[in-house]
Amino acid sequence: xxxxxxxxxxxxxxxxxxxxLGDGYFSGRGNLPHESELQGQAAIFNFSIGxxxxxxxxLSMCNLYSAIARDGSYILPHLxxxxxxxxxxxxxxxxxxxxxxxxxxxxxxxxxxxxVVTDGTGKTAKAESCTVAGKTATAQxxxxxxxxxxxxxxxxxxxxxxxxxxxGVVTVENANGTAAAALFAKMVDTVMKTKNASQP
Length: 200
Description:
Number of helices: 5
Oligomer: single chain
Distance between the termini: 52 Å
Largest sheet: 3 strands, antiparallel
Radius of gyration: 18 Å
Low-confidence stretches: none
Helix content: 25-40%
Order of helices and strands: HEEHHEEHEEEH
Shape: globular
C-alpha cells in the first residue's frame, strides 16, 4: 500500500488533531508524523500498528472505535458543561458525522474485535451484563524504572457488541492490555447497571 493511504486514513480519523471538547477545553494533539518521516518498510510497519513516533490520546482512539461501531462514521466527542434548573442536562449540539471508511470495513472490524474478546487477547474484557468488542494493547514509553521499561496497558472497545451504544478507552500505567481489559469489563457492567436501573 505504501504510507500515503495509511496516513490519509489516520487524518480522516482526526489523528494528530486537538479535539475541541467545549469552550476552552481541548484534548491533547498527539503526534501524526509527516509523510517524509515515514520512509522505509520498518517505519511504515511501526506506524501501522501505532509504534514509532505516532502518539494518540484516548479520545483519538475513541474516534476510531466510534467509526467502527457507527458503520464507518464518527462524531467528535464533547463535554456536557452544566445542568439546567430541574436537573435536565444542558443540550449541546453534536458535530456532523465524519466518514472515515465504508460500512463493509466497519462490519468486518466489528466481527474481528468481537473475536478478540471471545477468543483472543481481550478475554478479560468479557462483562456479565452484555457483549463486548475491542482490542488490547501494551504501549512502550521509553521510560525505565529499576531497569524495567514502564509500559501503558490499553483496552479500546464498544458495547453491546451486537448493537453498539457506548465506546470507551481504558489506560493503565505500568500494566499491560490484559489489566486494562479487566477494568473495561467493570466499566461496562457499571454503565449497564446504571442504565437498567434508570429505565422504568
